[in-house]
Amino acid sequence: MSNSEILSSLKLAGKTAVITGASRGLGEAMVRAFACAGVNLYLIARNDEKLQYIKQELSNYDITVHCFAIDLTDERATKEVFTKIAAYGGIDILINNAGKMTAKPLAFIKKEDILAQFEINTFAVIRCCQFASRLMIRNGGGSIINISSMLGEYGQQGQSVYSASKAAVGGLTRSLAQELASHHIRVNAIAPGIINTQLISELSDTEKNNTLNSIALQHIGEAEDIANSCLFLASQWSSYITGQIIGVDGGIHF
Ligand SMILES: NC(=O)c1ccc[n+]([C@@H]2O[C@H](COP(=O)([O-])OP(=O)(O)OC[C@H]3O[C@@H](n4cnc5c(N)ncnc54)[C@H](OP(=O)(O)O)[C@@H]3O)[C@@H](O)[C@H]2O)c1
Fold it and tell me: What is the tens place of the pLDDT at every residue in 187-238?
């Protein structure tokens, strides 16, 4: 099968997706993958310049792209964005990808850093699920994909707060999948391992090497590995999968 045959077999062309944290890293790779699959896009992040640059790069695709430069920790701004999206006709896919990691032992982490991580990694995800699922219920179904972390599943020293904020996303995903199943909305999470983006610049070389030694496939993942898993979870190929936390981590073991 050629790449274009694989993409068309996903049957995502003409669907509409919201991708948060679309300005770089995993989110940017998701944007490019979904654009290739013919999905109309709503991109959310704070950096408008970067969003506009990405939109410009997608101008050759036969899709519509809207950018919203907002801080997702701002509830009112988020609500306004989803109100605009509702007016445009709603969405089929939500990818809650925006996130933040501050690696510090619990004894040294400041209250502001604790709150900041929960604000974006957990509360913003809950809010987007709430706003998006209302639109999906109206449209008769959809797929929600939350990007959690393998640290939310296994934990790691120096990552107590980040791990806790991501573990909450696991609980949200499992519960919401049950709540929304009767509305034909599937809810899953991807728990990435260690992936080559700006976010892991927070880790020390020792932490990176320790993690590398615990990856069965013996290499750090690329953003496209996560983007491809999102395509699968958004598509008909995963139509019987909901409430799952899927590790995309090269076989990480602790
Ligand atoms: N990379 C990894 O190894 C790894 C592993 C496990 C889990 N993850 C998770 O995967 C997701 C993406 O990570 P990444 O590696 O791509 O991180 P990244 O390169 O730091 O990108 C984070 C994205 O989130 C956006 N963002 C952050 N705070 C925001 C806010 N308050 N409002 C709106 N947008 C915000 C950023 O855009 P702006 O700065 O423009 O707002 C950026 O687009 C995160 O949830 C992360 O926890 C990553």
Answer: 999 999 999 999 888 778 887 888 788 999 999 999 999 999 999 999 999 9
Distance from C-alpha of 64 to C-alpha of 50, rounded to nearest angstrom: 17
| Interval between CA 125 and ligand 1 midpoint (Å) | 12
| Residues labelled catalytic | 162
pTM metric for this prediction: 0.97
Number of domains in the chain: 1
**Ligand 1 closest atom vs CA 101:** 47
User: How far apart are alpha carbons 198 and 61 in whole angstroms?
Assistant: 27
List 215's β-bridge partners, or say none: 252
In a domain? residue 253: no
Give 14's contacts (C-beta < 8 A, 6+ positions apart): 38, 39, 40
CB 198 near ligand 1, within 6 Å: yes
From the CA of 250, how far away is ligand 1's center (Å)?
20
Give the domain CATH number at 134: 3.40.50.720
Amino acid at 21: G
What is the helix (H) or strand (E) element at residue 17, kind and residue range? Answer: strand 16-20
